Amino acid sequence: DADVTQTPRNRITKTGKRIMLECSQTKGHDRMYWYRQDPGLGLRLIYYSFDVKDINKGEISDGYSVSRQAQAKFSLSLESAIPNQTALYFCATSDRQSSSYEQYFGPGTRLTVT
Amino acid sequence: LAKTTQPISMDSYEGQEVNITCSHNNIATNDYITWYQQFPSQGPRFIIQGYKTKVTNEVASLFIPADRKSSTLSLPRVSLSDTAVYYCLVGEWRKLIFGQGTELSVKP
User: Fold this and answer.
1) Residue B96 pLDDT exceeds 80
2) CA A54 to CA A57: how far, in whole Å?
3) B43 vs B29: CA distance, rounded Å
4) Mean of the per-residue pLDDT values for chain A?
5) Which residues in chain A are closer than 8 Å to B48, comparing Cβ atoms?
6) Residue B1 vs residue A74, higher pLDDT
7) How far is CA A41 from each of CA B6, B47, B99, rounded to the nearest angstrom?
């Protein structure tokens, strides 16, 4: 089984709808991240959480919110989706105990807002 | 935040060694240099990380000169399956920024 899972894998929604993307991990890592990737571009950090009670905004947090329900779960919400939020969304985890900056990525959620 | 500059694309042939250079002129003292690989529609995968001099693992080598203003990822004897986008990241825990990356195309 995959260590980092994301649901749904694909989602089409309409402008103005609220949508939640979920991420779960079995790696036991304390740090979790949400990124978005637009075609031909690198990943941009939306939010990151270093602990259940430690949530921080990333580079592009406007229009998004997150919830860290447990160490293993980190959800991303779009309160009112808009077309320019159409993108590929990745969840990632990392281990505070590790000396490297290695992040482990999920398979991604492809979101289309019409 | 240290900005990175990499070639947008590179071509190579199977069996060749590929070197991808990343420029990061304003790297900070505490910053590490990390490289990731990404295949289409997949999440990035960690390749290698270093602070200075040379680091080698089973997949690649990373060369960092003394001034640390650049770094070179070296992939020995590439195969078709190494066709991917390679990202150079500079920073510490909270400040890892993915740039546009280098699209490597390996041909038979």
Assistant:
1) no
2) 10
3) 29
4) 93
5) none
6) A74
7) 13, 19, 7
> Best of A50, A96, A101, A110 to disrupt the B interface by mutation (most B CBs within 10 Å)?
A101
Chain A residues within 8 angstroms (CB to CB) of chain B? 4, 31, 35, 40-45, 48, 50, 56, 59, 88, 90, 92, 100-108, 110
Would you state the pLDDT for residue A26? 96
CA A114, CA B12: separation in Å to the nearest integer? 39
Report residue B11's pLDDT band, with 50, 70 and 90 as the boundaries.
Answer: very high
Count Cα neighbours of A42 within 13 Å in the Cβ-side half-sphere: 22
For residue B5, the 8-state DSSP code is: B
Residue with tokens 């993108």, as numbered in its chain:
A87
User: Chain B: residue nearest A101 by CA?
Assistant: B93
